[in-house]
């Protein structure tokens, strides 16, 4: 196992078998050593800076029906909302004052937001905040739509591949969605000049170490600018209500492995990590992560963007409490910076 970690650090690659073994034989001693190495590599490239992104969850309408997600279209118990342009711009205004220089527009796949409405929104934000990066996270679209978004001024796109394995993907999504289409979108986005973020859920129902090994190989091949991973957390109104949540320990272990495999990638300590433990995000940083995405959505809508149960949106997860997050990072020797925080990956 130790040899595999040394090989990974030296060559940034492992075979599928090596990954599978490493992912199914985690020990505390190994983990500790791994975190140390991951932090060293992260410090080498990014120092002890933690980048922040203001997350604006602008619509929870969704035409998709992913079995794990609380805002899936079949869930009749969600109160649906969509923000209008003024509301979104006022989130940006608040965020800018707080020091955010990246706005992440995330939502369900909401047909109301046509290409025309999206490009108008992107161009308006870009015009008002030319020194800020705009990140989109609105799912699978046609290449032409992605191109229009890019031309309107969007800089980055987050689209987790969720799981590489097509059979596993099938078991998490309805028939009309496929692993290969989602993966194709990522390559398209990259070609169009977006900084892309991919990623997966840890501990999603049916996930095996082999699946995770395939996820790592896929990410190596894609070489994304960012990788977002977080534990699967069940939502009570979904077909996966009774499933077990993914583990904090395995997520942290994977974060550190990602740091060694893709040394220059941006790695967020995700909200879902914070859902499992009060200190989840601090632990994420100590495992090699370097980005945090506090919630900048209007207070009255936050509870309705319920991807999973107990999704945190107060305390250090709330953009308005940035001072609290800052001090939590300082406690562990890191500092929040006001910066676009672009990826070093080309
Ligand atoms: N509609 C957009 C945004 C999806 S929400 C898209 O298709 O990309 C962002 C991420 O939340 C998803 O990619 C998924 O990985 C994660 N997510 C959804 N439900 C979850 C759950 N129950 N537990 C943990 N993460 C979840």
Task: Give a short summary of the structure.
It is built from 14 helices and 9 strands. With 346 residues, the protein is an alpha/beta fold.
Tell me about this structure.
This protein has 346 residues and is of the alpha/beta class. Helices cover 44% and strands 12% of the residues. It has 14 helices and 9 strands. It has helices at 2-11, 16-24, 28-46, 85-98, 115-128, 143-152, 166-172, 179-191, 209-222, 248-261, 271-276, 280-286, 299-302, 322-331, and strands at 49-52, 54-59, 102-107, 133-137, 156-158, 195-202, 226-231, 291-292, 335-337. The strands form 2 sheets. It has a 6-stranded parallel β-sheet. The chain has a 3-stranded parallel β-sheet with strand order 8-1-9, with helices on one face. α3 crosses α10. The longest helix is centred in the N-terminal third of the chain and has 19 residues, at 28-46. The mean pLDDT is 96. S-adenosyl-L-homocysteine binds at residues 68-69, 106, 108-109, 137-139, 159-160, 162, 201, 230, 232-233, 235, 272, 307-308.
Oligomer: single chain
Q: Going across the major beta sheet, what is the strand order? A: 2-3-4-5-6-7
**Contiguous helical run count:** 14
Structural class by secondary-structure content: alpha/beta
* H-E order: HHHEEHEHEHEHHEHEHHHEHHE
N- and C-termini, Cα separation: 31 Å
Beta percentage is: 5-15%
Q: What integer value in Å does the Rg equal?
A: 19 Å
Which whole number gives the mean pLDDT?
Answer: 96
Main sheet: strands, sense, barrel: 6 strands, parallel
The strand count comes to: 9
Report the helical percentage.
Answer: 40-55%
Shape: globular
| Ligand set | S-adenosyl-L-homocysteine
- pLDDT < 50 runs, ≥5 residues: none
């Amino acid at each position: 196992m130790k040899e595999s970690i040394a090989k990974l650090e030296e060559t940034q690659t492992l075979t599928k078998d090596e990954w599978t073994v490493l992912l199914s034989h985690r020990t505390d001693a190994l983990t500790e050593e791994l975190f140390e190495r991951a932090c060293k590599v992260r410090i080498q490239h990014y120092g002890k800076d933690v980048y922040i992104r203001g997350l604006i969850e602008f619509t929870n309408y969704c035409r998709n029906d992913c079995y794990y997600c609380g805002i899936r279209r079949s869930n009749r118990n969600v109160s649906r909302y969509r923000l209008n342009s003024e509301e979104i711009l006022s989130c940006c205004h608040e965020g800018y004052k707080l020091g955010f220089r990246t706005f992440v527009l995330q939502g369900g796949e909401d047909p109301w937001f046509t290409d025309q409405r999206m490009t108008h929104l992107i161009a308006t934000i870009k015009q008002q905040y030319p020194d800020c990066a705009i990140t989109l996270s609105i799912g699978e679209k046609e290449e032409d739509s992605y191109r229009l978004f890019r031309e309107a001024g969007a800089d980055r796109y987050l689209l987790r591949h969720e799981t590489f394995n097509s059979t596993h993907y099938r078991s998490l999504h309805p028939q009309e969605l496929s692993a290969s289409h989602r993966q194709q979108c990522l390559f398209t986005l990259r070609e169009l000049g977006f900084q892309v973020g991919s990623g997966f859920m840890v501990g999603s129902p049916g996930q095996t170490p082999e699946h995770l090994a395939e996820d790592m190989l896929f990410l190596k091949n894609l070489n994304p600018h960012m990788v977002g991973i977080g534990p699967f957390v069940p939502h009570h109104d979904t077909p996966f209500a009774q499933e077990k949540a993914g583990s904090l320990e395995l997520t942290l272990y994977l974060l550190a492995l990602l740091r060694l495999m893709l040394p220059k990638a941006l790695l967020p300590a995700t909200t879902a990590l914070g859902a499992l433990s009060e200190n989840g995000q601090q632990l994420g940083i100590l495992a090699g992560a370097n980005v945090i995405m506090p919630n900048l959505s209007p207070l009255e809508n936050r509870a309705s963007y319920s991807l999973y149960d107990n999704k945190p949106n107060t305390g250090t997860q709330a953009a308005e409490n940035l001072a609290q997050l800052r001090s939590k990072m300082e406690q562990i020797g890191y500092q929040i910076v006001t910066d676009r925080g672009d990826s070093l990956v080309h």
